[in-house]
Amino acid sequence: MAEPFDLVVRSRRVVTPEGERAAAVAVRDGRIAALGGYDDPLPAADAADLGGLALLPGLVDTHVHVNEPGRAHWEGFASATRAAAAGGVTAIVDMPLNSLPPTVDPEALDVKRRAARGRCHVDVGFWGGAIPGNLAQLRPLHEAGVFGVKCFLSPSGVEEFPSLDRSGLRAALTELAAFDGLLIAHAEDPALLAEPAGPTYPEFLRSRPQEAERRAVEQVAELAAETGARAHIVHVSAAACLEPLRRARAEGVRITAETCPHYLTLSAEQVTGPAYKCCPPIREAANRDALWEALAEGLLMGVVSDHSPSPAEMKVPDFAAAWGGVSSLQLGLPAVWTAARARGFGLADVTRWMAEGPARFAGLPGKGAIRVGADADLVVFDPDAGFTVDVAALHHRNPVSAYDGHELTGVVRRTWLRGTAVDFTTPRGRFLSGGAR
Prior knowledge:
Residues 55-422 form the Amidohydrolase-related domain. Pathway: Nitrogen metabolism; (S)-allantoin degradation; allantoate from (S)-allantoin: step 1/1. The protein has helices at 77-86, 106-116, 138-143, 166-177, 201-207, 210-227, 242-250, 261-265, 285-297, 332-342, 347-362; strands at residues 7-16, 19-28, 31-36, 47-49, 54-57, 59-64, 89-94, 123-126, 128-129, 149-152, 182-186, 230-233, 255-257, 378-388, 407-417, 420-421. With 437 residues, it is α/β, with parallel strands linked by helices. The longest helix has 18 residues, at 210-227. Helix 4 (166-177) packs across helix 6 (210-227). The protein contains eleven helices and 16 strands.
């Protein structure tokens, strides 16, 4: 008799890279060992039959600001990874700024890992940082296992993570090209940014025009072409960026880009308060439509949260003074699914954008898809259940979110990490390594 599997999960809506199908997913030693028919006899120590509920691969979110150590009162590894698991996200990659010290050398990376060890409910990787003066640290960070290094082309909002000018950007890309490292860039041209003329959202939006994003994207693309380096544009909000990205990719430039749930599901016309403030800003509905078209086209590699939380007292009513960042780590899947379904997209599309695409971008072949050999990161998703967002009931640290009170469709019922159900009390997350490891 064949050895029983550790777990078999059956669903009539298993979302695989080939599309939806009725199937049984068999797990052994934390990995998907077999994909069988829904009715196949597969002996198992544990089993679940989901019927018509969907089974998705765990989502991969490569843009999360955890902020620990140093600003753990903004967000910490325990709270952030609980929110991730509750939202169907089984792997995150943490951004290098906002923590103290910022992750700009291997020693700071060690500090970050020590802060995270034993506290993570999902798997966690780390980005390094590229700032003025740390050029010699980029290769050591790569060798220490970061997935790449992030830079800002405009002020980051925290003084310990200053931005790169054009010569600094060229130097970083030249250094990274020598070992095929990856640079990810917050792309806004500071010369085209201005202080808001007043405290309202329209004034804030005018202070960060689309042209600022477009010019910065063109600069990154030009220097990536010159140096041969890999580059990635984070959180694209402006439709004006799409043609420069399309042109650069057609010319063979090694450049990719992402967008975020808030740019796809919210619009400037519906902003009601500073919980919506982020940089670059949420733009008009017509701009949002263009982002959806670019996502469907494949110009944007996927959708990641840019979960950037802060204490409630930093979200003051004045849009000029409020901290910029949308807290959405737990809500990305239902938010995107609600909007995607209304536009005629299916679960396979959402999975491609929020699991497969980010996993491929980060170089995580064991994540982001239900296929034999992959990690058994699985999510039970009820695509028809509706709910009203209550920010006080979410797992992230501070009760602030632009989605508070919104009606969304799609509920995560259960999450497995490498075949073990996440119970929100026992951290089982592991560290993920990129770079040279």
